[in-house]
Amino acid sequence: VQLQAYGGGLVQAGGSLRLSCAASGRSFSDYAKGWFRQAPGKEREFVAAITWSGGSTYYADSVKGRFTISRDNAKNSVYLQMNSLKPEDTAVYYCAADALVRTVVAGLSTSWGQGTLVTVSS
Question: How many angstroms separate the CA atoms of 64 and 58, rounded?
Answer without folding.
Answer: 9
